[in-house]
Design the sequence.
């Protein structure tokens, strides 16, 4: 049985990506939740990963501690599932979108941290965040125009799982988006795997002060 180590569902965008992908494609796994910002967090993960961060996938004796490496491993081990698009060019574009998300958009990450439970319209925006948003929208638009939707490459896949946390940020902070982008955000949010993560995240009711500057005590 695969074991996926994750952080709080309300906050952990990196954990969300492989969890949603595995759930969406029916890949069986056992979830191990590690509460962020607790004394035992790093100690509990240190035996599993040199970076002691989530997510971590255990596949027997193999431990994989990077979200993109995790989903690449899943795609290799489960070729019966179209985690990546089957068509070569589409697969290359999907990998490009995921790699861009994996390595970029630092202003969006820092100013609009994922906080599923919160409603913070207008918070976090600045010109640097807007530049990140515009790049994301260009990538989404090109993919949706080519595939015809409703997801980036037609059917739900790894690219959508990787951008699910961005969709969560947009729902929390409500930046200005064109109607077609909101339609995509809503389609991702309505996917059963994404909705399951969201509902479980909202049910946690564990709030970290660092991520909750606007919550009243």
Sequence:
């Amino acid at each position: 049985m695969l074991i996926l180590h994750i952080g709080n569902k309300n906050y952990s965008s990196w954990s969300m990506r492989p969890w949603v992908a595995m759930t969406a494609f029916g890949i069986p796994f056992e979830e191990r939740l590690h509460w962020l910002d607790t004394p035992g967090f790093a100690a509990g993960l240190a035996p599993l990963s040199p970076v002691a961060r989530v997510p971590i996938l255990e596949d027997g004796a193999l431990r994989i501690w990077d979200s993109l490496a995790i989903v690449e491993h899943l795609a290799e081990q489960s070729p019966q599932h179209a985690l990546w698009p089957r068509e070569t060019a589409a697969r290359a574009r999907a990998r490009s979108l995921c790699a861009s998300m994996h390595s970029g958009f630092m202003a969006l990450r820092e100013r609009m941290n994922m906080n599923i439970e919160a409603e913070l319209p207008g918070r976090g925006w600045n010109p640097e965040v807007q530049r990140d948003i515009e790049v994301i929208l260009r990538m989404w638009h090109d993919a949706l125009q080519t595939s015809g939707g409703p997801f980036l490459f037609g059917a739900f896949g790894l690219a959508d799982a990787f951008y699910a946390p961005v969709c969560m940020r947009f729902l929390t902070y409500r930046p200005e988006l064109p109607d077609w982008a909101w339609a995509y955000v809503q389609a991702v949010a309505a996917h059963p795997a994404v909705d399951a993560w969201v509902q479980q995240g909202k049910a946690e009711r564990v709030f970290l002060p660092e991520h909750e500057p606007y919550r009243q005590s």
